[in-house]
Amino acid sequence: MSDVKINPEGKVALVSGGNRGIGKAIVIELLERGASKVYAGARNPDTLSVLKDKYGDRLIPLKLDVTDSQSIAEVVKVAGDVEILINNAGVLKFDSLIAEDAAENFAYHLSVNVNGLIGLTNAFIAQLKAKPNTAIVNVSSLAGLANMPSIGTYSVTKAAVHSITQGYRAELVNDDVLVTGVYPGPIDTDMAKDLQMDKDSPENVAKAIVDGLESGSEDVFPDAMSSQVGVAYATNPKAIEKEFATYVG
Ligand SMILES: NC(=O)c1ccc[n+]([C@@H]2O[C@H](COP(=O)([O-])OP(=O)(O)OC[C@H]3O[C@@H](n4cnc5c(N)ncnc54)[C@H](OP(=O)(O)O)[C@@H]3O)[C@@H](O)[C@H]2O)c1
């Protein structure tokens, strides 16, 4: 738990990948809980038109590709009032670490899930440090706590997101910035459509994230599976590794 607790009411947030899946649910949750403005990043901002019609001036669609430094620079220029940065954008391709194309798949996941996250966060870090009560929320995955063989190179990048979250928290220890890692299990979005497992809803994940901001949580386990795995991870991480190793695709 952090001393920095963020009530979303009246706050300004930016959500990357805010047009669908978990990101869209976070945008809605923040607005429904009183955020004064949410910048929703999307590679194609037209995909935000329904949300824009519903929330009007409080929802600002922004063109944002986290792999494009020019796109990030344009976003920073117009979103100088951001207080809550939600790094949600991510990609997943099912693969194997021992397949021939592992290095190529790793580079693909790395570009969005890691380099994109660092690029966007570092572009906002000075302004987040300068304001009182701000937050950085990084969406990792349970696969970032132990490798899942059918999503091997993705898991590596989500482990990096876990480490990056710890690193930002250490860098910002003397600042008024809450740094939170989010560790979802399988969630019912496009990303997980081919996953044959019970899935929780993106709305439950979004609610847990905003609850986590309010309570100052540094680690959010937002769904049915992750709340169980989170407890086990704290007591017996080796058991989680062994369990996930059985999920070979
Ligand atoms: N679903 C799960 O089971 C699950 C579990 C654990 C963690 N997660 C994590 O949760 C986050 C959201 O996933 P999701 O399930 O909501 O996936 P999703 O439905 O596939 O949505 C992914 C989002 O990321 C955006 N995105 C992809 N590449 C981008 C880029 N280069 N620049 C900016 N935005 C980009 C997508 O935008 P476009 O519409 O333009 O493609 C989309 O908005 C990801 O970080 C994911 O790894 C998901």
Average pLDDT, rounded to a whole number, is 97
Head-to-tail CA distance between termini: 36 Å
What level of helicity do the residues show?
40-55%
Count of extended strands: 7
Q: Which stretches are low in confidence, meaning pLDDT under 50 for 5 or more residues running?
A: none
| CATH homologous superfamily designation | NAD(P)-binding Rossmann-like Domain
Protein described:
By secondary structure, this protein is α/β, with parallel strands linked by helices. It has a single domain (12-244), classed as 3-Layer(aba) Sandwich (Rossmann fold). Helices cover 45% and strands 13% of the residues. The chain contains eight helices and seven strands; from the N terminus they run E-H-E-H-E-H-E-H-E-H-E-H-E-H-H. Strands 3-2-1-4-5-6-7 form a seven-stranded parallel beta sheet, with helices on both faces. Helix 6 links the parallel strand 6 (177-182) and strand 7 (219-220). Helix 7 (224-235) crosses helix 8 (237-244). The model has no long low-confidence stretch (mean pLDDT 97). NADP nicotinamide-adenine-dinucleotide phosphate (NAP) binds next to helix 1 and helix 4.
Q: What distinguishing features does this structure have?
A:
Rossmann fold; 8 helices; single chain; 45% helix; 249 residues; binds NADP nicotinamide-adenine-dinucleotide phosphate; alpha/beta; 7 strands; seven-stranded parallel sheet
